[in-house]
Amino acid sequence: MADLSPMDLYEKLTAQGEAVRSLKAQKSPKADVDAAVQLLLQMKLDYKRVMGQDYKAGCPPAEGEMAVDNGAAAEDGDDQVDPWNVSSSNAKGVDYDKLIVRFGSSKIDQELVDRIARVTGKTPHHFLRRGIFFSHRDMHQILDAFENKKSFYLYTGRGPSSEAMHVGHLIPFIFTKWLQDMFDVPLVIQMTDDEKYLWKDLTLEDCHRYTVENAKDIIACGFDVNKTFIFSDLDYMGASPAFYRNVVKVQKHVTFNQVKGIFGFTDSDCIGKISFPAIQAAPSFSSSFPQIFGDRTDVQCLIPCAIDQDPYFRMTRDVAPRIGYPKPALLHSTFFPALQGAQTKMSASDANSSIFLTDSPKQIKNKVNKHAFSGGKDTVEEHRKFGGNPDVDVSFMYLTFFMEDDDQLEKIRQDYSSGALLTGELKKCLIETLQPLIAAHQERRKLVTEDTVRQFMSPRKLPFN
């Protein structure tokens, strides 16, 4: 239904309502009437999902009103996934196959992974090989253009809600750096300090300070200063008329009813929250960065992000053609689970659910040993006999993110499943993987000075072919 215009949707619904009335007037068989009523109810639900408001007979949509794809409505028992909440009742975590269907995205299949390998001439990143990045929108289009010598740019972001980032926050940045290296393209990184001020009990000064501190961790991932622009919304919005104009264009084309339908806003939410999605949408358009792209409005954007951010970009993709811009493409990642289990994602606001990039080797060891949810059995005897379950074991899940050797990871899976490897030994393996990784990150971060941050955050020309 999202392919139809708002007026087409309205007229189809009106016609179905008339069909129901006609069947009732003719005293048609009950089964026929019930089927027609069920279809009418489903069409009303679809109309509300797409338009952000209830269908009302005799009240057609206003001229120029836009249909927005809100994704299929969540059903009872479905995982909760939105930009602010992620939870699942399943110990294995979110059902990502169901989420693809619900959000209307496409699965990253072996054919796409193989194509990325052919185009780049390199082995695909283990995040792709293992399905950590599992879903996409229009990635084939990006590759088509790249093969025809048409470039694109990368856009990702971070909401700076605390001074220290945790290991889960690294996932999109590790992968984005790999994409930047493979495709040799510019990257913009949005720091949504304005969003955190609107949603959290923080001062503007705190939010801006967290932006600078988080930027140091992002820079420590190894991004190329000659190809990367990091910006604070609080700074860049006022300094870039082109960026603000795109924010206003998006704001004009999305109604209050539509953002309520997409994001679940209520009448008691502050107006800053209601208008914020347009600010997250604006970096998807190359004209928001004239210092990088000049007057080009046709450079497509590729956004690697966790799938809870998808509602922002479904809205953006619906608006883009109406304001004369290409739709952004997306690559979606799974969530990095909390230490206590995959029912929720790791959160910076819960120190015990997270391993921070500031943690010492001793803190990492204690957190993993004390808090990491185990898929092992209650006793050594039972575990040796029946084996453990790596699908719910948090230590094994973390290894799938951070252990690069596929063969070693598979051996650990088999040994743990058979009972040859005990839970304590699996945790030790994770500790020995995380400790050097985080220590190396801390050493790189020490080299990031205030001047380095200023270089990355200065609006400037980036080499763009």
Oligomer: single chain
Amino-to-carboxy terminus distance: 39 Å
Estimated helix fraction:
40-55%
Average pLDDT works out at: 90
Low-confidence stretches: none
3D structure, described in words:
The protein is an alpha/beta fold and 465 residues long. 51% of the residues lie in helices and 10% in strands. The chain contains 21 helices and eleven strands. It has helices at 6-25, 30-51, 96-103, 110-120, 126-129, 139-147, 167-183, 193-199, 204-219, 233-239, 241-252, 256-263, 271-281, 290-293, 310-319, 361-371, 380-386, 394-402, 406-418, 423-446, 450-457, and strands at 80-81, 86-87, 106-107, 133-137, 153-158, 187-191, 228-232, 301-306, 329-333, 337-338, 341-345. The protein has a seven-stranded mixed beta sheet, with helices on both faces. It has a two-stranded antiparallel ribbon with strand order 1-2. Helix 4 (110-120) runs parallel beside helix 6 and helix 16 (361-371) packs antiparallel against helix 20. The chain is globular and about 75 Å long.
